Amino acid sequence: MTEVINETEYDIDGTEFVELADFVLTAMHVSTSAELNILFIEPGPMEDLHVRWLDLPGPTDVMSFPMDELRPGSEDHPTGPGCLGDICICPQVAEAQAHEAGHTLTEEMLMLATHGILHLLGYDHALEAERDEMFALQRRLLLTFLAR
Known about the structure:
Elements: E1 2-6, H1 14-27, E2 35-40, H2 43-54, E3 62-66, E4 83-89, H3 91-101, H4 105-120, H5 128-147
Parallel strand pairs: 1-2, 2-4
Antiparallel strand pairs: 3-4
Helix pairs in contact: 1-4, 3-4, 4-5
């Protein structure tokens, strides 16, 4: 079950992010009953998290905080429910990135949410091979979701 919490002044359609989460979890063969929180937060709190957890200055676009270490399942053996974790997204940072990339803020935040879910499912991009796999999957999932 996905909950969307908006602590910003931005007008965010939580339903679209719940639908995205259900789509991604289903595609990854993870129960949509898995607990997932998507929080939209201001730059100040995001900067606090960024410094505290990664020791990096300034706000960032998205951070993920896994709980039960759920992993993708398979069609024959889907992953059951559990506590997937939290994703924090900073719309202000996302807005600048969306403008730079030439797409909408909503598309950018949907991409960031997809990115965050993949991190919660154990994907990473520290190594080039991991990065290529994760970003290709992220792109495929998002484009398929947007085309529905």
